[in-house]
Amino acid sequence: xxxxxxxxxxxxxxxxxxxxxxxxxxxxxxxxxxxxxxxxxxxxxxxxxxxxxxxxxxxxxxxxxxxxxxxxxxxxxxxxxxxxxxxxxxxxxxxxxxxxxxxxxxxxxx
Length: 110
Hints:
By secondary structure, the protein is of the alpha/beta class. The protein has a single domain (2-108), classed as Transcription Regulator spoIIAA, CATH 3.30.750.24. The chain has four helices and five strands, in the order ββαβααββα. It has helices at 19-33, 50-54, 57-65, 92-108; strands at 2-6, 9-13, 37-41, 70-73, 87-89. The protein has a five-stranded mixed beta sheet, sandwiched between helices. This is Ribonuclease Z.
């Protein structure tokens, strides 16, 4: 697992592993990441389905309840299929933009 910290945002991605292994590694590393906004880059995975994305839902909900953003990045899915409870965007730039908007909303108490 590769971790790239940029200010208050941490971008996490994985090369050459299966999704379950990546999720296991992410859960192990979570205590070090829990105070940052987290972007999970899933571009290294060739095949992803809605059920794969839902594997991140518990971690996403826990992280968001702590007042931080959690965003998945992939362009492999139709966004109409993805539940609203989890944030999924097609590019890293959109992930950064979403985090910036969510930080503004938190600052304003929205």
